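Tokenise the fold.
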Amino acid sequence: MINMQHNNTPFRFMSFQEFVPDSLRFWIYMLFLICFQFSNGMYFCAMSQMSGSLSLTPDDVRMMGNAVLVGLTMYFPLAFRLKFRFTNRTCLVIAASVLIAINLIVPHVQSFPVLVVLCFVAGFFRLFGTFECFSSVLPKIAPTHNYAVFLSFVFFVVLGLIHVFDIAASYIMYYYSWHYIHYFAIGLLLVVVLGAFVLMKPFRPMPKMLLYSVDWLGMVLWSIFILSAIFVTQYGEQMDWFHSPYIRAATGISLLALAANLLRIRHIRHPFIELNAFNTRNLLNLLVLFLFLDILLSSQQVLQNTFTDAVLHFDQLNTVNLYWFDLTGMLIGALFSWYALTQLKWHHKLVTFVGISFIVLYVIQMYWLITPYTNIEKLYLPLVCCGFGHVVVFIALTVYAQATAPFKNYFQVLCVLGLIRTGIGAPFGDAIYTRALEAEIITHSSLVVALRELFGWSIVLGTLVLIIIAVSRFKNIKVY
């Protein structure tokens, strides 16, 4: 394992220069981590201004955001190969430097396909830097390598910082313009580069690992598969689905890439994702649960945002201030997950059930709040419930995957789960709700009635998911 030391010996970060106090080394990594979480190729909160400045549609900007998430997902199978190929300092400098270059280039690029590729690369290198930070602090956060403790910390930090950045970026954009978000990100990344050069020394926690057997073609094919599938769900409604030659072509490309990957798994020695990763016990259950989670969370992205924008007419700052309550729920959810899994020793199935229950509770509350007279304070509790449920389900299912998958294939399993969790799941859920909302508006001729109707169907879906969890079999495992 990485940086393993005897339990009686205090852990010490070895990647820093000797003049750096031991008490500051953990916090320097946390500062670097914050800088990476605040850095992307594009930023969802700037979608409205970017659409006008770069002549992009909202679907184009969302596609770029999805490319960031796919790039992030494709990093997982290479995580340890890259960490053990380069020193700690080199990993941080490479990741930050690439992200600086992308943030400099993106505001000046007019080609949509080029922007998608840049966003994919940004996602990959964002996780490159993030993984270097998290893997380095793992022995400090969880000395016994208890992943229930570590992943509770990881998901709160990652999801929490995303919310904090969205809030900060929205204020920057409100008073200035979306270009300043990129300047802000560049400034933070320069802190990483400068800090790594001045405060750190070349250090590699394991013997140097070469990259000669990496299946780069496999990574490209898996990326084409999921990006083409996302394109279909993202643009299907706009292009009239299979009446469009673009949708038919994207579908064909996606299926061909998937077929090529499945053939390569059986016929090459070291495929990007090995067959054993797909044989992980209960992997299908996890994929289905993450898909249902993404669909339920899409009710927040589509229905709630439509409600606050078109019915309640919240301005940008009122809308973004709601993120604080989502963030509060995530903090409570992370603490609950840690306590339930490590202290109470609850089964992952029970923790997952609790998490989904709180998302259903959010949907139920929203169903009764869909009126033109709802004030902003009434949205606080539902958002706390949604944030709580979101992070609890993520932690429970990811810890379960870690405990059931062979360590050799664990990061490949994370990549497979990411094809749903950070890949097709959210666009698929958004497409369902967007199409259903349009149909309901035509039927009822009232946006409020349409929103309430869809929140009602979300309650039904959430209840079915809870039943599925209740009757599903989860392998009894220990993570402590």
Notes: Confidence is low (pLDDT under 50) at residues 1-7. Residues 410-444 form the longest helix (35 residues). DSSP finds 18 helices and no strands in the chain. The two ends are 16 Å apart (CA to CA).
